[in-house]
Amino acid sequence: MLDGPRGLSRSVEDYLKAIYSLSECGHAASTSDVAEALDVQPASVSGMIKRLAESGYVEHLRYRGVRLSASGTREALRIIRRHRVLETYLARRLGYSWDVVHEEAERLEHAASDELIDRMAAALEDPSHDPHGSPIPTRSGDVEVTDHLTLAELPAGTRACIRWVADDDPERLRYMEAHGLLPGVFVEVESRAPFDGPITLRLGEGEADPQTIGHELAAGIRVAVQEG
Questions:
Q1: Could you tell me where the beta strands, DSSP code E, fall in 76-148?
Q2: What digits encode the pLDDT tens for the residues 173-223?
Q3: What is the pLDDT of residues 16-64, one digit of tens each?
């Protein structure tokens, strides 16, 4: 198994990154959640979690799951920084479209050194967000808090700005781009059907024709609500 630039295996880096993402809102990550996120068997997760705990990267929370320790969080943020800087460099400097940079960055992040990532970031004038709107951790490990609501949670009549979108499905990203659902775009929810039904919204200043999207798509779009 290949080792990353700090001697961690690719598998360990993937686990740390997955646990960070699952517990970003303050909740512990369950074994089943980690298994689903990484598409592995729960038994494999249990074994890896034990090794991560022995190495001081995670802490067990009785009956709740695991969360990263301080050292585990530092490593996870370092990995996430590598991934998001790579995505941004691929998009801005090499002309990759936003629907393919995630997979490319997944392959490259385990081999790229911190020095290479820092040089890429400097060449890009230290970007704060990746092509999907996700915040890029700083070299020192600081990262913007992303506790925004999803578009699926907004009541009718709410106006908001898209902040970031889920980046793990290329087809979904192509659909969102074709329909203008991009970070920085303002949207207003016109109506929403009950029981997780479709949501009708307008983009921009409301001059465009309304469009309807499904609840699942809306749940992968994080927004900042506009007051007033």
A1: none
A2: 999 999 999 999 999 999 999 999 999 999 987 667 899 999 999 999 999
A3: 999 999 988 778 999 999 999 999 999 999 999 999 999 999 998 877 8
- How buried is residue 185: exposed, middle or buried, by Cβ count under 10 Å (0-12/13-18/19+)? middle
pLDDT per residue over 141-181, tens digit each? 999 887 789 999 999 999 999 999 999 899 999 999 999 99
Phi–psi pair at 163, nearest 5 degrees: -100, -50
Helix axis angle for 70-93 and 101-108, nearest 10°, is 130
How far is it, in rounded angstroms, from Cα 49 to Cα 107? Answer: 23
Go through the chain and tell me how many residues it has.
Answer: 228
- Residue 209 DSSP label: P
pTM score: 0.90
Phi, psi (rounded to 5 degrees) for 188: -130, 125
Contact 222, 163 (CB under 8 A): yes
Helices (H) and strands (E) in the chain, counts: 8, 8
> How is the chain split among helix, strand and coil, in percent rounded to 5?
40, 20, 40
User: Which residues make beta-bridge pairs with 65?
Assistant: 61
What's the token pair of residue 61? 């929370």
